[in-house]
Amino acid sequence: KTVALSRAAEVSQLWQVPVVGLTLRELKSAARKGTQLRKVLTNHLLRDLVQSSLPGKKIEVIAVEARYSDQMIKELSQIRSNSSVLRVLPPDFLPYARFIRAQLQKRIKASGVEISFVSVADRPFEKLLKGSMHDHIIIDPTLVSEIPQKVRKGRHILVLRMQLDPKSLEAARIRAGVIV
């Protein structure tokens, strides 16, 4: 929810129009109740999932690409050779694990880095993080609230920092019919 709200605020400020931040569950609920929404912005990886969640609705789903922030790129570049990285994914992102791995490998400059994946649905976070043999664990900001504070302080845990791609956002603005 926090990510949806912050992205909505960012787009609202850039486009100078009101933008509502909703989770997929909230969007489905609003659609069932007869929402006035006609356009939905979503992460490019989740476009098909969002579209399929709105069957029969006349709501246009517009994908916006997200990319690693400069800070995230800096953090990834500090990973040492032959390290092991565990990427914890929300269940909806598991189908895109190969794509996500390729994007990570582009940013991790060190050689011999092994990247593996696990879904947050697979096991409780505390057990996963405490028993991890990985040098680094990368989690989505949407999952931070599920990690106990004492576990979150670990140096080997990186919170994924993404930003909206300006070119993709501009294309979405035009497609949405917003004139600034």
For the structure shown, list the relevant keywords:
single chain; alpha/beta; 180 residues; 38% helix; 8 strands; two-stranded parallel sheet
Provide structural commentary.
The protein has 180 residues and is of the alpha/beta class. Helices cover 38% and strands 19% of the residues. The protein has eight helices and eight strands, in the order ααβαββαβαβαβαββα. The chain has a four-stranded parallel sheet, covered by helices on one side. The two termini are 27 Å apart. 16% of the residues are buried. The model has no long low-confidence stretch (mean pLDDT 86).
Q: What percent of residues are in strands?
A: 15-25%
Largest sheet, strands/sense/barrel: 4 strands, parallel
Backbone CA Rg: 18 Å
Strand order in the sheet with the most strands: 5-4-6-7
Treating each run of at least 4 consecutive H or I residues as one helix, how many helices?
8
Instruction: Give the N-to-C terminal Cα separation.
Output: 27 Å
Q: Give start-end ranges of low-pLDDT stretches.
A: none
Class from secondary-structure proportions: alpha/beta
Q: Secondary structure elements and their pairing?
A:
Blueprint: H1 2-15, H2 24-32, E1 39-43, H3 47-52, E2 60-64, E3 66-68, H4 70-77, E4 84-89, H5 97-107, E5 114-119, H6 125-130, E6 136-139, H7 149-152, E7 157-159, E8 162-164, H8 166-176
Parallel strand pairs: 1-2, 4-5, 4-6, 6-7
Antiparallel strand pairs: 3-8
Concise description?
By secondary structure, the protein is an alpha/beta fold.
